[in-house]
Amino acid sequence: MRFLFLLVAAAASAADLAKLRIFDLAEAGKPVSLADLPRLREAQKDKVFTLEMPNPVFRLSDLSFLAPERKEKLDLYLPNGPDRLDRPAVVFIHGGGFTGGDKAEYRSASVSADLARAGYVVVSCNYVLGPKTKEGVWPRNIADCREAVRWVRSHAKALGVNPDKIAVAGGSAGGYLALMVGLSDDKTGPGGDPQAAVSAKVSAVIDFYGVVNFSKHGKGDVPGVGAAEQAAYLPVQQADPKDPPVLILHGTADTTVDIRQSHDLAAALTQARLDHEFIVVAGAPHTFDLHPKGTGWTRTTLRWAANGNETRVETKSAEPDLVEPTLAFLARTIGK
To answer: How far apart, in whole angstroms, are the C-alpha atoms of residue 183 and residue 210?
Structure first.
């Protein structure tokens, strides 16, 4: 387990970035801000055309989004092509068992690049890390992820984003955090801010094999929270029909987070009559991106009409790749 988390924490290398067709907008040794974006894109325009990098995406790294004293930053991924003022956006949250991982890990970079290439503005964020016995970690980690959503919404004009079309996604521990951002109240839920002037609500959630029940995962209860409040930290007990649609992705060969956790989540969403899709990837292990190993996938889609009627659709693919169903989910929920 520890070795896996160390792998997850490793940032994508220069070779990885080339493979993922990510072009960094950066100036060596100089901190950047969102205000630098137009100048950096213009300065690199000619250089991009000379690269053997078809349809690249642009990344601006290590932008501040929390209080000035906080070390956690975010990376911004932008599509190639003409500028727009109404692009939908996705906030991606890395995994790492809540104690490790990084926004620039390969999985985060890969998913972010795939989504940006499809036309989405993507933010990959860090958040406070540490064991649950460390004071100041919970629920600040949830609060940090909510702040990433608020940052996108408050900078929507500069980013060319429609502030009403933002989704949140995450893998493993990040899947849990994405679910908490999407399903629990952004003002009164764990890590909520009743004084926030900008909403952290989202229009869709993508959960890559996330933890949804701490006791089943062997991590016990959230420390410092009384027994009566534990339910507030469990996504399976936060869902209601007013929450945004959820896409669940999980592999049958996952030995880190039991796939039964995702089955429990799907059951809870069904009970809450919340629209969702559950894709089971045969043979896929933990920590996959949108191109997992495996032998295909099965998708169950449940939706409820205004009159309460349920529609259930089962679809299958002989290929494990998840780009098409993920983009279809986003197109349906936040547009493209």
So the answer is: 14
Average pLDDT, the chain: 91
Strand stretches in the chain, DSSP E: 22-24, 57-64, 73-78, 87-93, 121-125, 161-171, 204-208, 246-251, 276-281, 297-304, 310-317
pLDDT digits (tens, 9 = 90+) for 185-240: 999 999 999 999 999 999 999 999 999 887 654 456 776 677 778 889 999 999 99
Please write the tens of the pLDDT for every residue from 309-330: 999 999 999 999 999 999 999 9
What are the backbone dihedrals phi and psi of residue 85, each rounded to the nearest 5 degrees, phi first?
Answer: -110, 0
Q: Give Cα 206 distance to the centre of its chain.
A: 6
Q: How many residues are there in the chain?
A: 336
Class of domain 2-333: alpha beta
**Are 268 and 237 in contact, with CB atoms under 8 Å apart?**
yes
- Enter the pTM of the model: 0.94
Nearest to 79 by CA among 17, 22, 26: 22
Among 246, 259, 317, which residue's Cα sits nearest to residue 288?
259
Q: Are 286 and 244 in contact (CB under 8 A)?
A: no
Place of tokens 């933002």: 166
**pLDDT at residue 59 in the model:** 95
Centre a 10 Å sphere on the Cβ of residue 260 and count the other Cβ atoms it contains: 12
Listed residue (175, 109, 105) closest to 145, CA to CA:
175
Break the chain into its structural domains and give their ranges: 2-333
Nearest alpha-carbon partner for 148 in 186, 184, 100 = 186
Q: Is 38 left (phi over 0), alpha (psi -120 to 50) or beta?
A: alpha
The rounded distance, in Å, linking the Cα atoms of 275 and 311 is 10
What per-residue confidence (pLDDT) applies to 210?
A: 96
CA–centroid distance for 173 within its chain: 10
What single-letter amino acid sits at 25?
L
What are the two backbone dihedrals, phi and then psi, of residue 116, each rounded to the nearest 5 degrees? Answer: -65, -40
